[in-house]
Amino acid sequence: MFYKDERLALFIDGANLYAAAKALGFDIDYKLLRQEFERRGKLVRAFYYTALLENEEYSPIRPLVDWLHYNGYAMVTKPAKEYTDSMGRRKVKGNMDIELAVNAMELAPRLDHAVLFSGDGDFRPLVESLQRQGVRVSVVSTIRSQPPMIADELRRQADNFIELDALREVIGRPPREPRPEREDAPAET
Questions:
Q1: For residue 87, what pLDDT band results from cuts at 50, 70 and 90?
Q2: CA distance 40 to 34
Q3: In a domain, 1, yes or no
Q4: What's the pLDDT at 79?
Q5: Is 157 contained in some domain?
Q6: What pLDDT is stored for residue 189 in this prediction?
Q7: Residue 151 lies in a domain
Q8: What letter would DSSP give residue 28?
Q9: What is the mean pLDDT of residues 61-73?
Q10: Domain enclosing residue 145, as ranges
């Protein structure tokens, strides 16, 4: 599937990949993910796309975004929009599809292989266009979750489908052990 001398780029739909990994019950170690694809070819760029809530005091994704930025990922972010739906529920919208598609199209002439981490069927026309330009496209998502996290039309369009669950041992973070109680702590009576 991968050739050592091919130029490849990663396009990570952050929200989609997070949801797929969560559905499979594991967390991704982004350092291991980058190393894995550096091993598979000549990694030109690793993009990570996410929307951020700008007005929040603390965003749980901010530490990840900062870490990725300082560890070789090209971060593409934009402010998320908050709104109230017709049922009165607070919703957050932050679609990054256009940014991902534009970056992929711009980089296509300098790539042999694009790896898309998303199951969003909206990317099918992008995959088709990249293929017309001579770029092989692998899609990473999962069919092992209920429901499957990848749109069937995207999986069929891709040159390769990589099951995220099959990468668990390579890019998954080991589960955290519960912290042991300190031995010098007083015993409860």
A1: confident
A2: 10
A3: no
A4: 86
A5: yes
A6: 47
A7: yes
A8: B
A9: 92
A10: 7-81+91-171
Confidence at 94, pLDDT banded by 50, 70, 90: confident
Q: What is the pTM of this model?
A: 0.87
Q: Is 138 exposed, middle or buried (0-12, 13-18, 19+ CB in 10 A)?
A: buried
pLDDT, tens digit, 9 for 90 and up, residues 16-56: 999 999 999 999 999 999 999 999 999 999 999 998 877 66
Cα 30 from Cα 84, distance rounded (Å): 33
Within-domain flag for 183: no
In angstroms, what CA-CA distances link 4 with 39, 100, 123, 136? 8, 25, 26, 14
End-to-end CA distance of the chain: 61
- Do the beta carbons of residue 171 and residue 150 sit within 8 Å? no
Q: Which long-range contacts (CB under 8 A, 24 or more apart) does 33-36 make?
A: 33/171, 34/10, 34/71, 34/72, 34/73, 36/167, 36/170, 36/171
In three-state secondary structure terms, 104 is helix
Residue 186: the pLDDT is 52
Residues recorded for the chain: 189
- Based on the structure, what is the number of domains in the chain? 1
Look up the CATH number of the domain holding residue 127: 3.40.50.1010
Q: How far is the C-alpha of 108 from the C-alpha of 8, rounded, in Å?
A: 10
C-alpha span between 49 and 83 (Å, rounded): 21
